[in-house]
Design goal:
- Helices cover 31% and strands 35% of the residues.
- β4 and β5 form a beta hairpin.
- A 10-stranded antiparallel β-sheet has the order 2-3-4-5-1-6-10-9-8-7, with helices on one face.
- 21% of the residues are buried.
- The protein has 187 residues and is of the alpha+beta class.
- It has helices spanning 21-27, 70-88, 114-121, 163-186, and strands spanning 4-14, 32-34, 42-48, 51-57, 61-67, 96-107, 126-127, 135-138, 146-150, 154-160.
């Protein structure tokens, strides 16, 4: 689907040990590291190829964001753990990492009436306050994901677990909106 893409993969894990982030910021090999404890409690480690940013906390827990696929996130994690092991001079065999969710964007192919969509999709599952924000939040009761719809037909999905779920959810939303638009034109 050329109108649907993954723009961010978010994951995280733990190395199950505490770290001195000042040491990490000065000794971490092969990467750009930022550590400004006055403004953010984590060391921020950026990778350009593959793309990803790791936020490492003194507890040993970390988050990873910015990858454009689950495979890329896993690869960034592997490189990050390798660099951390190199810096510490020991294996971190007990580290754990999981891809938590991805963010995707799409285009439904036509402009949509967000007032109509808000009512038709259910006021309990939507939030639309155009004076505050130009998008409509849609969160189905029985799902972990949500989407943000714009009048232009652009849509942003978050909380999706993998590419297949992204495609399924996109198709559900597109079909639901296409049916609502069809009902409106039949009236």
């Amino acid at each position: 689907m050329e109108d649907l893409s993954i723009v961010n993969v978010v994951g995280g894990g733990s190395i199950h040990r505490e770290l001195d982030l000042r040491q990490v910021s000065s000794d971490f090999p092969h990467s750009e590291v930022e550590f400004e404890p006055e403004s953010f409690a984590a060391a921020v480690i950026r990778y350009n190829s593959p793309k990803g940013t790791v936020m490492l906390y003194s507890s040993g827990k970390y988050s990873l964001a910015g990858a454009e696929s689950a495979e890329e996130a896993i690869e960034v994690n592997s490189i990050f753990i390798g660099h951390l092991e190199e810096m510490l001079g020991q294996s971190l065999s007990e580290n754990e990492f999981e891809v938590r969710y991805l963010v995707g964007t799409g285009d439904l192919g036509n402009e949509i009436n967000l007032n109509q969509i808000s009512i038709a999709m259910g006021m309990a599952q939507t939030e639309y306050e155009p004076e505050q924000f130009p998008g409509l939040f849609y969160r189905p009761d029985d799902q972990d994901w949500f989407c943000l719809l714009f009048a232009s037909g652009k849509v942003v999905f978050s909380g999706i677990k993998d590419k297949h779920e992204l495609e399924d959810v996109y198709n559900q939303i597109k079909n639901k909106i296409d049916n609502l638009v069809q009902l409106d034109t039949d009236s």
